[in-house]
């Protein structure tokens, strides 16, 4: 929200979130912060609002048509949409996980470089849980990933997400998760792939920049990517404008985009990947510590709230692990 140069209308915000309730292996802990750490929105309404904002400042919106290929030469760039095409000078590819534009920049994701989510929308009256201003997170239910129950307006968003290389049958894992939390299992489920951030990927080619999921900018530990999609889109726009002014739209002219993404959030995405791998490699220890100690979870919540970074969090946590582990064993 702090990246946007306008406010979100109140009616878009379905729930203000102040904390998290974390479950692991029969242990549960809930932490609330004195400040808001997140808001919950529904994507159709939120995305539609953002699209309207883009149109207000002059973007021309063409909906319902898919880009099938790109063509670039010394004078400009062209996107093919069926038999039609649109010509411009620089393309910013923000076409999500299955990006067509990314094919012109980098190789496909390997299986250990993306995750799978299965999500459902369950009406309020089918959920007998007392959750309002916190998110409910369950570790140990989806391989290296987690299950979630998020309270929206009139419904709960419920799902699981984990590494594609580990989550054997995502829908079966989702059904087990629903059953274990007492939620209805005969719900409509939708599966989505999601890139893991922190993996080195090319994001710039001649007359072409990748932003958001197309560039792989997603927190590998939480699966959050909206903030990175917004920020990388802004940076891509700024760098494209400078490149157009200088007339240098080749890789070298656009490279400042890679540098600025790296400087602003690239390092933190790498730390999120290391954290995810470390925490899941030693999940018994890390997750038990997180689910049993208010300070460990409380400090972590400052990361998604953008008051701290993974780097700072790990620098704080790692030297304290022996002490926390000893406390856990003796308690
Ligand atoms: C189940 C689930 C839950 C999530 N929850 C959260 C969360 O709570 N918080 C968070 O921060 N992130 C969350 N994420 C991640 C977040 O959704 C993404 O990181 C974010 O949407 C990326 O934005 P984007 O604009 O790059 O891509 P997208 O939102 O995927 O948008 C890509 C757009 O490009 C269009 N498109 C694709 N191909 C073409 C084509 N060939 N031609 C034309 N258009 C095309 C698509 O129709 C779409 O409109 C979640 C992801 C999943 C799967």
Calculate the terminal CA-CA distance, rounded to whole Å.
Answer: 41 Å
β-strand percent reads 15-25%
Count of individual domains = 3
How does the major sheet shape up? 7 strands, mixed
What is the subunit arrangement here? single chain
Total strand segments: 15
Please tally the helical runs, counting DSSP H or I stretches of 4 or more residues: 8
Order of helices and strands: EEEEHEEEEEEEEHEEEHHHHHH
Supply the helix-strand structural class.
alpha+beta
State the CATH superfamily name of the largest domain. Answer: FAD/NAD(P)-binding domain
The helix content is: 25-40%
CATH class of the largest domain: Alpha Beta
List the bound ligands. Answer: flavin-adenine dinucleotide
Order of strands in the sheet with most strands = 3-2-10-11-12-9-13
Which term fits the overall shape?
A: globular
Taking Cα atoms only, what radius of gyration do you get, to the nearest Å?
A: 21 Å
CATH topology of the largest domain, by name, is FAD/NAD(P)-binding domain
- The CATH architecture term of the largest domain is 3-Layer(bba) Sandwich
Mean pLDDT equals 92
- List low-pLDDT spans: none
What would you say this structure looks like, in words?
The protein is α+β, with helices and mostly antiparallel strands and 331 residues long. The chain has 8 helices and 15 strands. Helices cover 34% and strands 23% of the residues. It folds into 3 domains: 108 residues, D-Amino Acid Oxidase, Chain A, domain 2, CATH 3.30.9; 147 residues, FAD/NAD(P)-binding domain (3-Layer(bba) Sandwich), CATH 3.50.50.60; 52 residues, no CATH class. The longest helix has 31 residues. The model has no long low-confidence stretch (mean pLDDT 92). The strands form 4 sheets. Strands 3-2-10-11-12-9-13 form a 7-stranded mixed sheet, with helices on both faces. A 3-stranded antiparallel sheet has the order 5-6-7, with no helix packed on it. A 3-stranded mixed sheet has the order 8-15-14. The chain binds flavin-adenine dinucleotide. The site of flavin-adenine dinucleotide (FAD) has 22 residues, from strand 9, strand 13 and helix 3.
């Amino acid at each position: 929200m702090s990246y946007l140069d306008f406010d979100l209308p109140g009616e878009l915000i379905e729930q203000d979130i102040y904390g998290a309730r974390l479950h692991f292996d029969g242990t549960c802990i809930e932490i609330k912060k004195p400040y808001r750490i997140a808001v919950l929105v529904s994507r159709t309404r939120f995305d539609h609002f953002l699209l309207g904002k883009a149109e207000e400042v002059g973007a021309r919106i063409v909906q319902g048509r898919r880009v099938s290929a790109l063509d670039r030469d010394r004078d400009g760039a062209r996107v093919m949409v069926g038999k039609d095409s649109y010509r411009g000078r620089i393309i910013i590819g923000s076409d999500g996980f299955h990006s067509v534009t990314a094919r012109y920049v980098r190789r496909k994701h390997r299986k250990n470089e993306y995750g799978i989510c299965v999500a459902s929308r369950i009406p309020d009256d089918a959920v007998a849980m007392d959750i309002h201003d916190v998110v409910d997170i369950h570790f140990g239910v989806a391989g290296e990933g987690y299950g979630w129950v998020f309270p929206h307006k009139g419904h709960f968003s419920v799902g699981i997400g984990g590494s594609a290389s580990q989550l054997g049958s995502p829908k079966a894992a989702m059904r087990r998760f629903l059953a274990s939390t007492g939620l209805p299992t005969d719900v409509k489920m939708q599966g989505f792939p999601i890139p893991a951030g922190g993996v080195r990927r090319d994001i710039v080619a001649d007359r072409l920049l990748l932003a958001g999921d197309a560039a792989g900018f997603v927190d590998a530990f939480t699966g959050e990517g909206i903030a990175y999609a917004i920020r990388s889109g802004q940076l891509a726009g700024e760098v494209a404008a400078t490149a157009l002014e200088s007339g240098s739209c080749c890789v070298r002219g656009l490279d400042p985009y890679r540098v600025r993404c790296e400087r602003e959030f690239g390092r933190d995405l790498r730390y999120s990947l290391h954290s995810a791998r470390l925490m899941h490699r030693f999940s018994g220890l890390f997750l038990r510590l997180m689910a049993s100690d208010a300070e460990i979870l409380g400090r972590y919540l400052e990361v998604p709230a953008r008051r701290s970074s993974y780097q700072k969090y790990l620098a704080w946590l790692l030297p304290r692990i022996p002490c926390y582990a000893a406390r856990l064993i003796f308690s």
